[in-house]
Specification:
about 200 residues; Helix Hairpins; minor pseudopilin epsh fold; 2 domains; SOD_C_sf; metal-binding; Mn/Fe_SOD_N_sf
Length: about 200
């Protein structure tokens, strides 16, 4: 079994003008694919060859295999990020909106926290909306770090590696983050993750 490089859940130009088709061709078609290819090369012929990507991530972290962890976690984070974006504007409702208002005060306050966390994260990494036993919070992880391994449930994520925005916006990370949070975040995906008894799994 090999780890898949799943297709985007929308057309390559579907997020324009906020994220261009050129960015997605490079980010999904080259960066994400390279991580997947390196995972498959590393596990070929080993006991991990028939494991899920989640199992590989956990194994690599526990074994201290930084190279495998970086590529496996980045593969998982990227697939989760594509799902965290929607070409059709969405809005929180129901249980998700109630949880946001309970834990942040308002949707605007959550958006402000997400933007601050994503913009102020130093160097490469990820900004997450997560649920710990039903309580929501915003976190960030460095480099390939993933909330998959922390025992809390990720709801959506924002990629703040430069390759996520540099083609479109050069060094203007705040403009990219504003566009993602205000226009592209997939709140329906967040609601499904909040309601689920399990953490989202990478497409086979």
């Amino acid at each position: 079994m090999t780890i898949a490089h799943p297709p985007l859940p929308y057309a390559q130009d579907a997020l324009a003008p906020h994220i261009s088709a050129d960015t997605l061709a490079t980010h999904h078609g080259k960066h994400h694919k390279a991580y997947v290819d390196k995972v498959n090369a590393a596990i070929e012929g080993t006991e991990l060859a028939d494991k899920s990507l989640e199992e590989i991530v956990h194994h690599a972290e526990g074994a201290g295999n930084k190279g495998l962890f970086n590529n496996a976690a980045q593969s998982w984070n990227h697939a989760f990020y594509w799902e965290s974006l929607s070409p059709t504007k969405t809005a929180p409702a129901g249980d998700l909106l109630a949880a946001i208002e309970r834990d942040f005060g308002s949707l605007d306050d959550l958006k402000k926290k997400l933007k601050e966390t994503a913009v102020n994260h130093f160097a490469s990494g990820w900004a997450w909306l997560v649920s710990r036993d039903g309580t929501l919070s915003v976190t960030d992880t460095h480099d390939a770090g993933t909330e998959l391994t922390t025992g809390i449930k990720p709801l959506v994520v924002i990629d703040v590696w430069e390759h996520a925005y540099y083609i479109d916006r050069k060094n203007l990370r705040p403009a990219y983050v504003d566009a993602v949070v205000d226009e592209l975040l997939n709140w329906d995906f967040a609601a499904k993750n909040l309601a689920s008894d399990t953490t989202w799994t990478y497409p086979a």
